[in-house]
Amino acid sequence: MLPKQRQDEIVRALRVDKAGGVKVLAARLGVSEATIRRDLEQLHDEGRLTRVYGGALAVDGGDEPFADVNAVHAAEKDRIARRAAELVQDGESVLLDIGTTALRVAQHLHGRSLTVVTSNLAVLEELQNDESIELIILGGFVRRSYRSLVGYLTEESLRQIHVDWLFLGTSGVRPDGRVMDSTMIEVPVKRAMIQAADRVVLLADATKFPGHGVARVCEPAELHMVVTEPGADPATRAQLTEAGAQVVLA
């Protein structure tokens, strides 16, 4: 990977996760920590991120465009999404969270006899012409930058339904298994989704272990299953298992 490509990937990753440590970025990009430090210093000087002790923060420039987020770790997300879709039986109901991994789950549900409920406008676009799927869209305020619905109406809609499966996204999983998110406005909706589902499945690639987030979404005991990758932190996976969540590797 050329230096420019690597630096663009760093900025893109920070916009997704809001922050990143030197060790995590080095592992993600397959380069030395010294290389990442040099990149962070250069990107800081260019105003593309904010350098902090141990890593960097994303520049506050609004949400990363959905298409850019979707391109980050695309292969990993697709493996996780495919494994998640395999859990669902025909005739069941599925609640899909916002985000790009949930969109990929929807792509693997085509042609199935299912009910899909979502606040994810990208999922709406993906499934709207699939006549085999009964598609229910939650109400709410349109958050255009991330193609989602949020707010009181979304939460109230969730209080009126109950589904078999929830596929939940996250900004990161703490070492103790707590699920976090970086976008405060989405957290109440995620919590309402958890209450509306019989089985809560967290979808998280290896870079989310540990990940970043300022707001707690749920405790590990509230999860029934976590679909992730073999590279996800073993200690965190052990905490999740101890809390009662089944960890499935895609």
Automatic annotation (TrEMBL):
Keywords in alphabetical order: DNA-binding, Repressor, Transcription, Transcription regulation
Domain HTH deoR-type: 3-58
Pfam families (UniProt xref): DeoRC, HTH_DeoR
One GO MF term attached to the UniProt entry: DNA binding
SUPFAM superfamilies for this protein: NagB/RpiA/CoA transferase-like, Winged helix' DNA-binding domain
Known function: Repressor of the lactose catabolism operon. Galactose-6-phosphate is the inducer.
PANTHER family with a match to the protein in the record: GLYCEROL-3-PHOSPHATE REGULON REPRESSOR (PTHR30363:SF4), HTH-TYPE TRANSCRIPTIONAL REGULATOR SRLR-RELATED (PTHR30363)
Name of the featured protein: Lactose phosphotransferase system repressor
Protein source organism: Kribbella sandramycini
